[in-house]
Design brief:
The chain is built from eight helices and nine strands. The chain is of the alpha/beta class. It folds into two domains: 207 residues, 3-Layer(aba) Sandwich (Rossmann fold), CATH 3.40.50.720; 32 residues, no CATH class. α4 links the parallel β4 and β5. α3 runs parallel beside α4 and α4 runs parallel beside α5. It is globular, with a radius of gyration of 18 Å. Bound molecules: NADP nicotinamide-adenine-dinucleotide phosphate (NAP). The site of NADP nicotinamide-adenine-dinucleotide phosphate (NAP) has 31 residues, from α1, β2 and α6. The site of NADP nicotinamide-adenine-dinucleotide phosphate has 31 residues, from α1, β2 and α6.
Length: 258
């Protein structure tokens, strides 16, 4: 028996990165999974791999800034698995800019997916959790949920909002046995870093080398792996954290401890 046997989990934004690593871990722990994202080819590949390994995973192409796609995600999860026990609000984007340089479009897009989609998916899922008498929501925050950073104004403010949304939702639904927590990763090595390049410190020979060099200023001297964040999401999603709600759990190797 896995820690999530007989439970159904929705993971938003599981076509890559932390969402994908969490889907793979949840599947190994016995969860029935619905995973989402906009990139169809990647989502189908993640689901196929999980199903080949004996898991139960359905990929739904969905853009969570669109209410119809959110409603479709909930409905198709119920059609396939009858109930929803766990929602991991993971989908998000990183947007750079200061107060002066952030465009109206970047601000709106960032808040649409990083904040509004978290509220929207939670709003849609809570009635179904109430019907089954329990549920768990895990929101993906960031180290920037609790500290500021230069040049990341739209992202940091959106992730700060996720932290307080988590606490407020936890209080609203604690008496209904619906727990709401946030995982707050620090810099975590995901495929996206390789795609966009990460050459900020000299002229390293490989992206991996660039990342290792720029990680030397971090307390543990390295970045997280997506799997390390996924294990903490599993803790928050499972009964191992049965009396934990309203918590923002830093997974940042000590970065925000100072
Ligand atoms: N990596 C880090 O260092 C780090 C640190 C702190 C927090 N986080 C948080 O971790 C979460 C996952 O990010 P990641 O680092 O794993 O990067 P990632 O690989 O880019 O993952 C982001 C996921 O969100 C999905 N997504 C983005 N916009 C979406 C939309 N409108 N509708 C549906 N899905 C959408 C993407 O799928 P599609 O592109 O296929 O839609 C992708 O699956 C984010 O919330 C991020 O803020 C990451």
């Amino acid at each position: 028996m896995g820690k999530l046997s007989n439970l159904t989990a929705i993971i938003t934004g599981a076509t890559s990165g932390i969402g994908k690593a969490t889907a793979e871990l949840f599947a190994r722990e016995g969860a029935n999974l619905v995973i989402t994202g906009r990139r169809n080819y990647l989502g189908e590949a993640v689901a196929a791999q999980i199903n080949r390994s004996g898991g139960q995973c359905l990929f739904l192409q969905a853009d969570h800034t669109c209410i119809e796609d959110c409603e479709k995600t909930i409905q198709q999860t119920l059609n396939r698995f009858d109930k929803i026990d766990i929602l991991f609000n993971n989908a998000g984007i990183v947007t750079r800019g200061s107060a002066e340089t952030t465009s109206e479009e970047d601000w709106a897009n960032t808040w649409d997916i990083n904040v509004t989609a978290v509220w929207r998916m939670s709003r849609l899922v809570i009635p179904h959790m109430r019907n089954t008498g329990k549920g768990v929501i895990v929101n993906n925050g960031s180290d920037l949920s609790v500290v500021g950073a230069r040049g990341f104004l739209p992202y940091a403010t959106s992730k700060g909002a996720v932290a307080l949304m988590t606490k407020s939702m936890a209080l609203d639904h604690a008496s209904e046995n619906i727990r709401v927590n946030a995982v707050c990763p620090g810099d975590t090595f995901v495929e996206r870093w390789l795609e966009r390049g990460f050459y900020e410190h000299g002229t390293p020979t490989t992206p991996e080398e660039a990342m290792l060099r720029s990680a030397t200023s971090l307390p543990m001297g390295r970045y997280a792996l997506a799997e390390e964040v996924a294990r903490v999401v599993l803790f928050l999603a499972s009964d191992d954290s049965s009396f934990v709600t309203g918590h923002t759990l830093m997974v940042d190797g000590g970065k925000t401890a100072a």
